Amino acid sequence: MGCLVSTPNDSGGNRRLPANIGEVSVFVPGLRIPNPVDFSQSLGDHLSKPLVERLSALRTRIDVMAGQEAPTITRTRRRTATQHGGSTLADLQQALEDYLPVLLGLIRDGSPLQHKVQFVWVNQEDDAEETAISNAWYEVLSVLHLMASLSLSQANLLLLPRTSADGYQPKVSEESRRTSIDIFLKAAGYLDCAVRQVLPLLPAELRRGLPVDLREGVLRALCLQALGQLSG
Fold it and tell me: Per residue in 169-201, pLDDT tens?
């Protein structure tokens, strides 16, 4: 069983509202971003050095990019790069997609490695809301939640009315609507996977201590919202 270390705010209660809320078309949950992990210390005696280095490089890329992207996730203006050198929503999404299969390859089939590393994630909207769990399935769950949140944010940007070239009233283009449908489907897929395939792998006691954003009811509600946009 994973070892849970969680702050009192994780159990629910009053949430501090984000200080900067941009215009939204769909609800986008606050980002949960990862703290750095030293894989060499935890896994150095269990995995080859090249594999540990690859895992560390993939995770560090996510740590850096998520830290850069989180403060601006609620802003509605489309950006092609940040002041830190090109971290975009799509880039961060790709980094997560690169990391996830490598992580899964190490912990499937009841591997003892799943309990060797303590993973720490922090809610972007409240630095005091930090949860540390020594269970790699918690890391998988957190990654899927972040991927879904990024997808919802991307879809939200696409659905914001924009001033047309002819100067008429701002509107959403048909191309943006079509693209957003694919993104909503991806978000729903990540959330459905989290609920059906990952949550059941966590012990019941650990599931009860998860931060509110990762609880089954919240994940299901986000999934239904994403699917509901397909007929909107």
Answer: 677 788 888 888 999 999 999 999 999 999 999
AA letter at 198: V
Domain ranges of the chain: 4-9+20-231
The reported pTM is: 0.81
In angstroms, the CA 26 to CA 43 distance is 40
How many helices and strands in the chain, by DSSP H and E?
Answer: 7, 4
Among 159, 119, 147, 123, smallest CA distance to 36 is for 119
Q: Which helix (H) or strand (E) holds 122?
A: strand 119-123
Superfamily of chain region 4-9+20-231: alix/aip1 like domains (1.25.40.280)
Distance of alpha carbon 187 from alpha carbon 84, whole angstroms: 27
Greater confidence (13 vs 34) lies with: 34
